[in-house]
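Consider the following input, taken from an annotated entry for tRNA-specific adenosine deaminase (Domibacillus epiphyticus).
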Amino acid sequence: MKLAIAEAKKAEQLGEVPIGAVIVKNNEVISSAYNLRETTQNAVTHAELLAIEKACEVIGSWRLEETTLYVTLEPCPMCSGAILLSRVDRVVYGAADPKAGCAGTLMNLLDDDRFNHRCDVVPGVLADECGMMLTNFFRSLRRKKKEQKQRPNE
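Applying the prediction step yields:
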């Protein structure tokens, strides 16, 4: 998870929402990524999707069996779908996402018997650190927007 946090900090340096993801197979990191949605202006450039894409390239297959995905924020519906379809075995996440979390908070797409693949989910790993990174980012963003409104002629 520490590596995913390091990835999230890279996103934050770019003004992106600080979310990072790392995929591990056989105790070896095979891919890492961070959110790039604002940079790319592309709705699908979430950290998890970018990490999955890189891992598929490394392995040479769309099947990411026997892998673990570490991510600083609970996966959204889109990312949860990609995790299932790429056959990731285990997801370890930091902060819960009360607005879009689909690994146990709003629903658990990753462990739904109706799908032909399910993931083990380990929630709340370094949750405070992951959550504070997001809280501080959004607090800073709101403060900057408020300051801009107070100085509209600049």
